[in-house]
Structure formats: structure tokens, C-alpha cells
Amino acid sequence: MPELTITPLGYAMGAAVTGLDLRRPLDDLTRRRLYDAWLKHVVLVFPGQPLTPEEHIAFSANFGALDDHDSQAPETLLEGHREILVVTNKHRLGKPSGTRNTGRNWHTDLSYTMRPAKGSLLLCQEKPPVGGDTMWANLTMAYETLSPKMQAILDGLEAVHDVTLVKGIGARDPAIVQAMKQRNPAVVHPMVRVHPDTGRKSLLAGERVSHILGFSEEESTALLDFLNAHATAPEFVYRHRWSVGDIVLWDNRCTCHVALPDFDQTQPRLMLRCSLQGESVGRLAEAAPAATREQMIQTVASLS
Ligand code: OGA
Ligand code: MN
User: Which InterPro entries match (predicted)?
Assistant: First the structure.
């Protein structure tokens, strides 16, 4: 058996792990080495691991309990294995797949639920000849490179995450979208998270955030646009060019990611995802939307 080797792939994050057969159970020492490598490199790539669904689930469980995907439309889960979400542009059960555009804007998995995922393990089963890449942004770096004054402002802020901002959701079957909304009412999360394992702070923003609590709509949009542009700058990003049989494990507690539409959509792409259950940190958002600048001006005018 070759030796377990961890090779860094990018400056911001990413490392390839070779010398392991993931079909076999991990011993305690190997599990600990992988977990430490995960914390250090944030995104781990395991090439050449075409696992069966059972093996994928068993390997994922080394990193935490699995999410049961209660938040997802049932028809997007693998038959007989609800721990696996099927991300594909191939027809499913004779219909266009509901996940054909999954992940097309910068997001942190399941941030629109009370329990954003701890991590995810995505296995590439089929891919187009070119493209279909995924990018991750390191949100610890993003936070740590903000000025102390901006960090202090963000430390006290919360934002609303909304499933209806999943890009392309409008193209899905309206009944399924309605059920997704009912299952996932808008939730509030802090804009700065403390990583439970490393103690480091990271920014939680992304393109599924509707607004910052207490800010006017315009203030919120301006700050979110700045933060999202800052966080996803190329120097904080690892871009993965998939090969069939790659498994990528990412730490969802300190990253966001995007699935690029950089491929010929007539070519099949099929990815299987296990999600690690996160801590329950959110709370339900109140229905009130952010006030607009115009409304603020009118409120002040009526007082004076
Ligand atoms: C996901 C996701 C990215 C991709 O499964 O969480 O965002 O490239 N997928 O398919
Ligand atoms: Mn995702």
C-alpha cells in the first residue's frame, strides 16, 4: 500500500490526498490525520475513488454525522439513500433534473436552513469533456483581510438567508419550489462565524443572503456586494477541474463555493453529494423586509 500523501494544490486552500483506498474503513490514526489535514487545507481532493453509495456514505461519516437532507426536494435524493443528493443535468425519472443548476451562485451549503452543513463530500461520476469546474472561496482569509474596523462592524451583524435566492430556482417546477419555501422559511445567521474546531473567525455572506438585519435595503446591498466581491477575489479561491472518481471534501464552516456553468449543457454531468450535519445556529427571520432609503427619509420627515 503506498503511503498517505497530502499535496497542497493552491495558496488559498486545497490539497490532494493519495495513497488511501477509501473503500476500506479508516483506522483511528488515519482518520485523525485526515481530519487535521482537512482543518489545515479546508478543501481536500481524493482522486481516483469511484465509491458506491454505501462506501461514499461510510467514508463521509468519518468527518461527522450525515445530514438527512430533510430540507431538500425528495426527488433530488438518491433512491434508497437519502444521505445522497444527486446533482445532475441528466433527466431524472423521465423529467428535467431539479438540480441541473445547483450551486450556480456563491453559497454555503444549507445556509438557508437553521443548520448550515458542517461540510460536504461531492463525488464526480460523470463529467463533460471540458469544464464543469467548481470554485471555493476561503472565508477565513476573507474575514482576516478586512480592516479591524470593518471586522468590528461585522462582528455585531446578522443577515437573512433565503432559499428563494438559489439561482435558477424560478426555472424549477412551481409546486416543488413552493414546497422548498415551506420547508425552508428565511433564517437569520450571524455574519461572522467562529469555527468550532479552529476557533478562527470567518465571514458568512454569499449570494443567498437577502439583507443585513437593521440596515436599509440600499446599505445592505452595498455592503453585501462589497463583501461578496472581496471574499471571492481570485487570491482566496481554489478552482477544481474535475476528473471522474474525484471526491472533494470541503469545510462548509469557513468557505463558500459556486458551480460554474462553463460547459456544454448537452453533455452529461453527474455528481453525488453527502452533507455533514451542521450545528443548529440559525433562527427564523421575521417577515419584515429591510426598509428602503426612501422610507427612512419619509419616517424622518414625518418626525420633524
Ligand atoms: C453542491 C454544489 C457544485 C457542483 O453540490 O453543493 O454546490 O459543481 N455543487 O456541482
Ligand atoms: Mn453547494
Answer: AtsK-like (IPR051323), TauD-like_sf (IPR042098), TauD/TfdA-like (IPR003819)
Instruction: Provide the number of structural domains found in the chain.
Output: 1
Query: Does 55 map to a domain?
Result: yes
Does the reported pTM lie above 0.90? yes
**Does residue 113 line the site of ligand 1, with CB under 6 A?**
no
Q: Which amino acid, one-letter code, is at 74? A: P
Between the CA of residue 257 and those of 92, 102, 252, what are the distances in Å? Answer: 25, 11, 9
Q: Is 110 in the pocket of ligand 1 (CB under 6 A)?
A: no
CA of 263 to the centre of ligand 2 (A): 18
In a domain, 185, yes or no: yes
Q: Is residue 272 part of a domain?
A: yes
CA-CA distance, 260 to 181, in Å (whole number)?
24
| pLDDT by position in tens, the chain (length 304) | 679 999 999 999 999 999 999 999 999 999 999 999 999 999 999 999 999 999 999 999 999 999 999 999 999 999 999 999 999 999 998 999 999 999 999 999 999 999 999 999 999 999 999 999 999 999 999 999 999 999 999 999 999 999 999 998 888 889 988 999 999 999 999 999 999 999 999 999 999 999 999 999 999 999 999 999 999 999 999 999 999 999 999 999 999 999 999 999 999 999 999 999 999 999 999 877 788 989 888 888 888 7
- Is 102 near ligand 1, meaning CB less than 6 Å away? yes
CA distance 110 to 131: 25
CATH code, 115:
3.60.130.10
**Who contacts 156 (Cβ-Cβ below 8 Å, separation ≥6)?**
none
Closest ligand, as measured to the CA of 255: 2
Q: What is the CA(267)–ligand 1 centre distance, in A?
A: 17
Q: What's the domain range around 232?
A: 5-291
In a domain, 296, yes or no: no
